[in-house]
Structure formats: structure tokens, C-alpha cells
């Protein structure tokens, strides 16, 4: 059996990205094992798979169904977890057609196969235990995820659709800082194009564009820490004003600004914000510096508020 360097058996968690089902039910139940999270479209190497366990979380993706069928003799245990009634299609009546199709395609139609390969059924409620009693399901009790004891830092960029070039410029910067700083989250306002651009990054919140009064109310909500105001050189951008400084400060955040005539009208580097050359590596380091120094942020924020 494959195990980690602590001697714990390996269990492959097949899931559609991070999800509450795994956090509340699966992880507390398998905490004593070495958990390897796998997305629908990725497979482990065979040598890392021998005599391991597999848990399908709610869904059976086609790639994994074939992989398990072809390598069943290598698997020590196969489990399927559901926290909804995924095997009774009548129970989904009234739900959106697209969601019903997903349940049919990734769950309902595979129950016969799961029984054929002798998969263990894990469920979330006594109701499901009773309903599928013939399968002898295992009831998993939910547990709260561990409370966050460290401060999460919210990085944000609230550029409009006219700033899409800046949004693309920021993407690799955001990708690197999110990788290097696990307690950093990123918030951006954008449309479906922006949502698609950042879809593969963790801890990104894409907000819909909103009217000015709603945006003002958004800025009043606490929690934002570092605001970004990049500005690429273009004829359109040369006519910009420095109002992003007001938005970032109103949000209770410290800003990182592009140098030049626009923001140098109000930003004094190291006093009420940071003026950082439009160099991606420099912006990464500036973000990480601010994220890791609360006292420095507090001093800069006070300077920014004094400038209003």
C-alpha cells in the first residue's frame, strides 16, 4: 500500500475543486490518512496509486471511471460520498434543468457501476442511511472546519471595463502573490471575461459591476487591506484622474500606485501609499511587503487619511 513519510495510507479525493462536502464531511473522517486531492481532469501516476483508496465526492467523472475500471486490482477501497439524494432522479424535480443534467450525468447513471465494483456508500444524513439501507451506507457526521487563527489579507483592484489591459497586466502578479502568500485573497470587479481569466487561481472573488451608490456602500464594508492602482501608458490613460486614491483610502486600505503625473499629484511614496514602477516583479514584492507588515500599513493608511 502506498503511504506518506509518516506511514499513513494514501487516499485520493476525486472532487470538483474545493467544496463544502469535503471540508465538512470527508476530511474529518480521513484525517488520519494522507489525502491527495484530484480534480476531474487529472490522474495520479500508477506507481503512486498502488493499493491506495479512492473517494468520489458526489460525482463520478468519466476519466476517473475508466481509470478505476482499468486498475481496480490496484485499489484497496473505493468509496462514493453524497450529501444530497443524488440517486433518486425524482428528488430533483423542480430544480434547474442544467443542474438536473449534471446530477444525472455525473452521479445518478453511475450507481449501477458503483455497485458492480463494490464501492462503499458514504452519506451525510440518517434519511439517506434509511433510504439506501440495502447498500449498507456509512453515515459521516459533519464537523466544523478549523477556525482561522491568522489574519486574512484582502488585496483588491476595482478597475472598470476600460481598464482591461491593466487587469491582464495584473494577472501574473496576482497569481504569484496568491501562491506565495496563502492568507492572501484577491477581489476584483469584472464581467465574464474577467471571471474566466482568473478562474484557475485560488482565493479570487470576482464581483459584478455596480452602480455608484452600491459601490460606495461596498467600500464601507470592512476587510480590504491593499488596493492596487496600476496604470499603463496610453493616450486614454493620460487623461485619468487620481480618484482611485480616494476609493482605496475610503475602503480602509493602503494603495500601491503607478508612478507618473497622475498619482504623483497626491501620493507621496512611503508616506501615504507606495509608488512602484510598472514592473511586475516590483509589484509582487511591494504587495508581499505590505501584506506582511501590519504596522507599516497602519502608518501609510493614517497618512492617506490625512491627505483627504
* Radius of gyration computed on alpha carbons: 25 Å
What is the residue-averaged pLDDT? 91
Count of DSSP-assigned helices: 11
* Structural class estimated from helices and strands: alpha/beta
Tell me roughly what share of residues is in helical segments. Answer: 25-40%
How does the major sheet shape up? 6 strands, parallel
Strand content: 15-25%
Uncertain stretches of 5 or more adjacent residues: 1-6
Give the strand line-up of the largest sheet.
2-1-3-4-5-6
Count of DSSP strands:
12
Distance between the termini: 64 Å
Give me the strand/helix succession. Answer: EHEEHEHHEHEEHEHEHEHEEHH
Shape: elongated
Protein model, in words:
The structure is a single chain. With 308 residues, the chain is an alpha/beta fold. 34% of the residues lie in helices and 18% in strands. It has helices at residues 20-29, 62-70, 97-106, 111-116, 126-131, 164-180, 192-197, 212-220, 244-250, 280-291, 294-306; strands at 10-14, 34-38, 53-57, 77-82, 120-123, 138-139, 153-157, 184-189, 204-207, 224-229, 254-257, 274-275. The strands form two sheets. It has a six-stranded parallel beta sheet with strand order 2-1-3-4-5-6. Strands 9-8-7-10-11-12 form a six-stranded parallel beta sheet, with helices on both faces. α6 (164-180) crosses α10 (280-291). The longest helix has 17 residues, at 164-180. It is elongated, with a radius of gyration of 25 Å.
Amino acid at each position: 500500500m502506498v503511504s506518506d513519510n509518516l506511514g499513513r495510507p494514501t487516499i485520493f479525493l476525486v472532487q470538483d475543486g474545493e467544496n463544502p462536502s469535503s471540508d465538512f464531511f470527508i476530511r474529518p473522517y480521513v484525517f488520519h490518512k494522507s489525502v491527495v486531492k484530484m480534480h476531474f481532469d487529472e490522474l495520479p501516476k500508477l506507481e503512486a496509486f498502488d493499493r491506495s483508496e479512492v473517494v468520489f465526492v458526489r460525482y463520478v467523472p468519466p476519466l476517473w471511471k475508466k481509470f478505476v475500471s482499468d486498475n481496480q486490482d490496484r485499489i484497496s477501497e473505493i468509496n462514493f460520498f453524497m450529501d444530497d439524494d443524488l440517486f433518486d432522479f425524482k428528488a430533483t424535480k423542480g430544480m434547474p434543468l442544467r443542474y438536473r443534467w449534471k446530477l444525472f450525468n455525473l452521479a445518478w447513471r453511475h450507481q449501477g457501476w458503483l455497485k458492480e465494483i463494490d464501492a462503499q456508500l458514504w452519506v451525510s444524513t440518517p434519511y439517506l442511511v434509511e433510504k439506501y439501507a440495502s447498500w449498507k451506507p456509512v453515515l459521516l457526521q459533519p464537523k466544523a472546519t478549523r477556525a482561522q487563527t491568522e489574519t486574512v489579507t484582502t488585496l483588491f483592484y476595482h478597475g472598470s471595463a476600460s481598464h482591461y489591459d491593466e487587469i491582464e497586466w495584473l494577472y501574473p502578479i496576482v497569481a504569484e502573490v496568491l501562491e506565495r502568500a496563502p492568507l492572501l485573497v484577491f477581489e476584483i470587479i469584472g464581467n465574464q471575461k474577467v471571471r474566466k481569466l482568473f478562474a484557475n487561481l485560488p482565493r479570487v472573488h470576482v464581483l459584478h459591476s455596480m452602480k455608484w451608490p452600491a459601490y460606495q456602500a461596498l467600500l464601507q464594508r470592512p476587510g480590504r487591506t491593499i488596493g492596487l492602482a496600476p496604470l499603463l501608458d496610453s493616450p486614454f490613460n493620460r487623461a485619468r484622474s487620481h480618484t482611485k486614491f480616494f476609493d482605496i483610502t475610503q475602503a480602509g486600505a493602503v494603495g500601491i500606485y503607478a508612478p507618473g503625473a497622475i498619482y504623483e499629484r497626491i501620493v507621496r511614496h512611503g508616506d501615504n501609499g507606495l509608488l512602484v514602477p510598472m514592473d511586475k516583479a516590483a509589484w509582487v514584492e511591494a504587495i508581499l511587503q505590505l501584506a506582511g507588515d501590519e504596522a507599516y500599513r497602519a502608518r501609510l493608511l493614517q497618512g492617506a487619511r490625512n491627505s483627504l
